[in-house]
Amino acid sequence: xxxxxxxxxxxxxxxxxxxxxxxxxxxxxxxxxxxxxxxxxxxxxxxxxxxxxxxxxxxxxxxxxxxxxxxxxxxxxxxxxxxxxxxxxxxxxxxxxxxxxxxxxxxxxxxxxxxxxxxxxxxxxxxxxxxxxxxxxxxxxxxxxxxxxxxxxxxxxxxxxxxxxxxxxxxxxxxxxxxxxxxxxxxxxxxxxxxxxxxxxxxxxxxxxxxxxxxxxxxxxxxxxxxxxxxxxxxxxxxxxxxxxxxxxxxxxxxxxxxxxxx
Length: 263
Hints:
One of its GO terms (molecular function) is structural constituent of ribosome. The protein has helices at residues 3-15, 36-46, 49-53, 64-85, 138-148, 184-202, 217-226; strands spanning 107-110, 124-129, 152-153, 173-178.
């Protein structure tokens, strides 16, 4: 027998490699076959089929944009139903309009967003003609205008709710607003107290400001910002016309001379 034949069995046993983490079949017996019905029963105990299918698109749902459009349509339909069924009931609360008199010269303006929370809803604005305030004389009116500063204007503000034909325009208008406090009545109370203090200081006879002219720089800045002819330097508040030409600059009229007859 040759040496090769003797060594062949030993070499064959050594060449059979096995992974280092593997173990013999006798150390870990294989589990037997598992019944499919038992496995399904255990899964049903953990989660049901309805839970798996919940939220799954079955092909009959719309996109996100479609849901937004449907929500807007439902909101529009809600307000249309309010107009149809609830608005006629407001007729019972209708009151006739009574123009304000000299006893109630204040015009209070506020902003409402239909019950929704908004920072601008607490703001209150008051506009009042200076001629309707309880000021004693012309000196008190002049002092009040000085104290008002840029809050005074000769013309009513556009958002004041004051018509062009209302009386009391000879001394201009006073406008004041406040939004520092969290509630609207609190801001209105501050405006009322401030207006009372201005009137009291204007009626103080111990202080005279008749020699101090009015500061109209805020009016000039407003005219320049509007750019309607009064923004150019030296033009005032309106564009000049031929009526504004000084008459003293016109030459004296020269009498017409009669033509002399030539012989």
